[in-house]
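= Protein in question =
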Amino acid sequence: MSNNRLLIIDDEMAIAELIAQVGQDCGYETFCAQSGEQFRARHQEWRPTHIIVDLHMPGTDGIELIRFLAIQRSSAQILVMSGFDKRVLAAARRLVAERGLAVAGTLAKPIHVANLRALLETLKIPDGTIDRA
């Protein structure tokens, strides 16, 4: 099992799959959740090290998922993603930090692959540094 497991939730599967492909290219195991329920279940069973949450999705509220992660005391590095302006991303970033979660950064849509790749590379956990016992 990889030290780097990336859980992605976005209502646009093409975007989620693009992020997953970039993550795989960077050495991450990836999983794209298609619903809040699938995201919650996968988080609990898989224990991702990194999470990308889209804030605005029909049928699933990204803020509610952040609250779920706080209740679960997730230790994952969290990236908040949105197509809204930078003020929304900044507010969401503050919310993640206020909930005691590890804020890894924000991603503005449209995603720029080179920027995403660079960010994921800097966030990678070196092999052998996580004890999952």
Q: What stands out?
A: The longest strand covers residues 102-108. Residues 13-25 form the longest helix (13 residues). Helices lie at 13-25, 36-46, 62-71, 86-98, 113-123.
